[in-house]
Write a structure and sequence with these properties.
By secondary structure, the chain is of the alpha/beta class. It is built from 15 helices and 13 strands. The strands form 3 sheets. It has a 6-stranded mixed sheet, with helices on both faces. A 4-stranded parallel sheet has the order 8-7-6-9, sandwiched between helices. Strands 2-1-3 form a 3-stranded antiparallel sheet.
Length: 435
C-alpha cells in the first residue's frame, strides 16, 4: 500500500520491492514479495538538541519502562506504543580494561557489555519491543527459532506479558545455560533434530500457517530495540561517535540494526560523523564474510560449525539489511577461527569482565583490524559483548581444564592435599620473582 494522506508516526517498508504496510500489520515479511521489512519513522517533531535533552532527562530516572535503556529512546523506537512490556532492560556499561588494550594493540578499547541485560544478552532490547508489538496487535502466542539467547529472552518477556511462548532450538549443540532459561521461564521448548536454519524454517511455517507471531530478528520491531545498543553507547560518549563499532555476526540482526541506528542518528542530527562497522563471524560459520570478500555479488550459505553457538548460523536471515549496513558505513566483515575466539574470550574473562564465546568475536576482530592495518591504534573502537560469561559454562570449563595443547590463556585448577603447606607452595609458584 501507499499512504495517500499524511504519513503516520511509523510504518513498515519492504526493502526489496518498496511495498508499504501499516505499523500494526502482523506479517513478518512483505505481503507482496516476501522480502524483509524495515520500520520507518517520521522525523521527530523536535530539534536535535531537544531530542537529546529528552533522552538525557530520562536516563537513570523513574521505574519500569521509564528506566529502560530502550524506551528512553521511545521517539525513535516505537513512538505510538502506549503500554510496553519492559523488565527494564538496557543501561549496560561501557567498560575499559588496559589488559585488553595490550592484548588487541588498541590504544583505548571500550567494551559495550550487553550481557548485563536481564536474561544475560542483548536479545532483551529487541524482545521488549517485539513482545510489546505482539500485545498491540492482539497476538495470543509468540514463537522463535534460536541458538539459545533469543529463546531465553522470548520466554522471559512472553511470561511477563502473560502470553504463550513456543521456542524451537537445535536438539544438539545448544548451551545448557540458555536451554535452562527457556525451560525456567515457562516456554514450550521444542528440541529440533536439525540446526538453527531448520528451526527458523519451521518457525516461519508455524507463523504463516498456525497464526503465532514470529519474533526472530527478521521481525523489524526486534531491530528497533536492538538499535538502542548504538544509541546508548553514543549517549555514553556524549554523542561523539567512535571510529569503529565492532560486533559478532551470526543471523545479522545486530549488523542491520546498528546500520539503521547510525543512519537515522546522522539524518536526525544526533551525530556528525559515521563510525565504521566491523562484523565478525566465526570462521566455521562465515557465509556473510564470503559474500563480503566477493563484493556481495552473491549470497552464500554454509553448514555452520563453531564452538560459538550464538553465531552458529549458516544462512543469515537478515542478509539483505546487513549488506546495506556494511555498505553505508564503509564497513568490513572479518572471520575468527575457534582458537582465536576462545583466546579472545580468555583475555576478556581474565580482565574481570567475562563474556560468552560468540561475544569474544568482537575483541578478536579489533585485534585483526589493527594487525591488518585497517585500524590505527589511536582510533577509538567500541567492541560489543553480546552475552554473559555464564551463558555457556561448558565451553569455558573445557578450555581451562581439558584443552590440549594447553592454550596460553588457560587457568588450570590445582588439586592439593589438605595441608597449609600445599597452599603455601601454590602461593610461592604464583608470586612473581622481583628483578
Amino acid at each position: 500500500m501507499r499512504f495517500e494522506t499524511e504519513r503516520p508516526a511509523s510504518w513498515q517498508t519492504c526493502l526489496a520491492c518498496g511495498h508499504e504496510m501499516t505499523e500494526t500489520d502482523p506479517h513478518p515479511r512483505c505481503r507482496s514479495c516476501g522480502g524483509l521489512l524495515e520500520i520507518r519513522h517520521r522525523a521527530p517533531d523536535l530539534t536535535p538538541a531537544e531530542l537529546l535533552r529528552r533522552f538525557t532527562e530520562r536516563r537513570g530516572h523513574g521505574s519500569g519502562a521509564t528506566a529502560s535503556g530502550v524506551w528512553r529512546f521511545r521517539e525513535v523506537v516505537l513512538p505510538s506504543a502506549e503500554t510496553v512490556i519492559s523488565h527494564p532492560e538496557g543501561n549496560t556499561p561501557l567498560l575499559h580494561r588496559p589488559s585488553l588494550d595490550r592484548w588487541t594493540g588498541a590504544g583505548n578499547l571500550l567494551l559495550k557489555h550487553e550481557g548485563h541485560n536481564p536474561t544475560g544478552s542483548f536479545k532483551d532490547r529487541g524482545m521488549t519491543v517485539g513482545v510489546t508489538q505482539a500485545r498491540r496487535i492482539g497476538a495470543t502466542a509468540v514463537a522463535c527459532a534460536s541458538t539459545g539467547n533469543t529463546s531465553a529472552s522470548l520466554a522471559a518477556y512472553a511470561s511477563q506479558a502473560g502470553m504463550a511462548a513456543l521456542v524451537l532450538v537445535p536438539a544438539e549443540g545448544i548451551a545448557l545455560g540458555k536451554l535452562a532459561q527457556s525451560l525456567a521461564y515457562g516456554a514450550r521448548t521444542l528440541l529440533v533434530r536439525g540446526d538453527f536454519d531448520d528451526c527458523l524454517r519451521l518457525a516461519e511455517e508455524a507463523s504463516a500457517k498456525l497464526g503465532v507471531y514470529l519474533l526472530n530478528s527478521i521481525n523489524p520491531f526486534r531491530l528497533e530495540g536492538q538499535k538502542t545498543i548504538v544509541l546508548e553507547l553514543l549517549q555514553q560518549l556524549f554523542w561523539q561517535a567512535p571510529d569503529w563499532i565492532v560486533l559478532p555476526a551470526g543471523n545479522l540482526g545486530n549488523t542491520s540494526a546498528f546500520g539503521k541506528a547510525l543512519r537515522e542518528a546522522r539524518e536526525w542530527g544526533l551525530i556528525s560523523s559515521m563510525p565504521r562497522l566491523a562484523a565478525v563471524q566465526a570462521a566455521g560459520a562465515a557465509p556473510f564474510a564470503r559474500s563480503f570478500d566477493e563484493g556481495f555479488t552473491r549470497r552464500h550459505t554454509v553448514k555452520a560449525d563453531t564452538v560459538a553457538t550464538a553465531i552458529r548460523i549458516g544462512d543469515p536471515a537478515s542478509y539483505d539489511r546487513a549488506v546495506r549496513a556494511i555498505r553505508e558505513t564503509d564497513g568490513v566483515v572479518l572471520t575468527a577461527d575457534d582458537a582465536e575466539l576462545l583466546d579472545a574470550k580468555a583475555a576478556v574473562d581474565a580482565s574481570g569482565v567475562g563474556c560468552e564465546p560468540a561475544s569474544a568475536a568482537s575483541v578478536a576482530g579489533v585485534r585483526q583490524l589493527i594487525r591488518r592495518g585497517l585500524m590505527d591504534p589511536a582510533q577509538q573502537a567500541v567492541a560489543v559483548l553480546t552475552g554473559h560469561i555464564l551463558k555457556d559454562p561448558g565451553i569455558l570449563l573445557r578450555y581451562h581444564r581439558e584443552t590440549e595443547p594447553r592454550p596460553a590463556g588457560a587457568n588450570r585448577p590445582v588439586e592439593i592435599d589438605a595441608t597449609l603447606g600445599s597452599i603455601e607452595a601454590v602461593l610461592r609458584a604464583a608470586t612473581p620473582v622481583s628483578p
